[in-house]
Amino acid sequence: xxxxxxxxxxxxxxxxxxxxxxxxxxxxxxxxxxxxxxxxxxxxxxxxxxxxxxxxxxxxxxxxxxxxxxxxxxxxxxxxxxxxxxxxxxxxxxxxxxxxxxxxxxxxxxxxxxxxxxxxxxxxxxxxxxxxxxxxxxxxxxxxxxxxxxxxxxxxxxxxxxxxxxxxxxxxxxxxxxxxxxxxxxxxxxxxxxxxxxxxxxxxxxxxxxxxxxxxxxxxxxxxxxxxxxxxxxxxxxxxxxxxxxxxxxxxxxxxxxxxxxxxxxxxxxxxxxxxxxxxxxxxxxxxxxxxxxxxxxxxxxxxxxxxxxxxxxxxxxxxxx
Length: 322
What we know:
Largest sheet: 9 strands, mixed
Helix content: 25-40%
Order of helices and strands: HEHEHEHEHHEHEHEEEHH
Radius of gyration: 19 Å
């Protein structure tokens, strides 16, 4: 039986003893921001802190070099996204998946999407290139709420749901033709009260179209979106403590020990919510992935996490540690 997506998530958010080091081995998982662009403007997302949307995508040559280095270092799982919506750059996405799978030899490639641009043609191209996991973010109970929070027209939400239903058919057709099976998943933010009831009704409608659905807490995005959260009445938890049902302690933060995060500009970040580059630990256009992973700034930050005192580090203002 294939490993569940929640088991994979839990394996990353839990820090094994051998990684509780200032200079740990290469992470099992890395997320790469093929594009920092997104067609949504969700009120709870750290991307809202960017003064302007980035105009560039990752250079394919840089991605290929990093993919080779990461695989040689022992990285097994490669996320084809970070904070942006990767289907904003569909040709780059497919090229990157194909290279990572066929040339670099990654066992597992995964992608999370808002779904609005995940057309059947785009999904088919990704699966045929070697994508192993595709997850939809289902975070709105209806079109009206979507427009209020995501900041874009309702048509995008409707398309996302249509694409999700179509993806199951596409997956089954690709599997029948090629033998390659891409897992289909969905996650949703767990709210309180009436909103939760409405979300559960939506999830029940779309659960038959995915292999697994799971719930996430409302993340604080490292305090980056706190003002907008207050305006919309959100009540987020501190930091990123994983999924509901298996929340982790905020210190030491798993993001700095078990998963790499690379921006479209080639910067290695210690934080899974780093939209403004305040957690950058190395410039991977200048050094190798492994050099960046164990750079002096990264080692010093991890040592502070291990002491459970992040005062004076880029993490001190995160709401997880206030």
